[in-house]
């Protein structure tokens, strides 16, 4: 009789552990997932390579979550090239993030080389003072 109770008890404990694990992963995933999007056309307007673009995208969407907390849907709606980025020179782009009918928020994305083929990506909300009169350059020919 005792082995049957122990067996069913351990089964219940295993189920409880699975449920708790799923709840934990679900809650952790909600915070870790970057919910944002961009079109292939928008992607082609940036001079950054795929790795740098991915870093910039996640940083921009993360910052946008701080400035527009009420918005669930975030989309890069335009990228303006201010200083072209390349494998040998630093660059600056203005990324505009919109979503669900709200006014787009501009972010300055700086891509800075710091040796060994690595690039540092920094994102700040554009206050309109820096690069105010800078011409917007065409995207790269891809």
Would you mind describing this structure in some detail?
- The chain has 142 residues and is α+β, with helices and mostly antiparallel strands.
- The protein folds into 2 domains: 33 residues; 90 residues, no CATH class.
- 38% of the residues lie in helices and 26% in strands.
- A 4-stranded antiparallel β-sheet has the order 1-2-3-4, covered by helices on one side.
- A hairpin with a 5-residue loop joins strand 3 and strand 4.
List keywords for this structure.
disordered N terminus, alpha+beta
Write the layout of secondary structure elements.
Blueprint: H1 2-32, H2 40-44, H3 50-67, E1 75-83, E2 91-99, E3 102-113, E4 119-125
Into how many domains do the coordinates divide? 2
Choose one word for the global shape: elongated
Q: Percent range for helical residues?
A: 25-40%
Count of DSSP strands: 4
């Amino acid at each position: 009789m005792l082995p049957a109770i122990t067996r069913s008890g351990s089964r219940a404990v295993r189920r409880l552990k699975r449920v708790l694990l799923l709840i934990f992963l679900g809650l952790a995933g909600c915070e870790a997932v970057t919910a944002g999007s961009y079109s292939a056309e928008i992607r082609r307007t940036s001079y950054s390579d795929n790795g740098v673009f991915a870093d910039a995208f996640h940083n921009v969407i993360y910052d946008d979550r701080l400035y527009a907390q009420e918005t669930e849907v975030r989309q890069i709606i335009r990228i303006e090239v201010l200083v072209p980025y390349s494998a040998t020179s630093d660059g600056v782009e203005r990324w505009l993030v919109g979503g669900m009918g709200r006014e787009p928020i501009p972010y300055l994305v700086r891509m800075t080389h710091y040796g060994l083929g690595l690039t540092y990506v920094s994102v700040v909300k554009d206050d309109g003072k820096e690069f105010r009169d800078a011409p917007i350059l065409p995207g790269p020919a891809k």
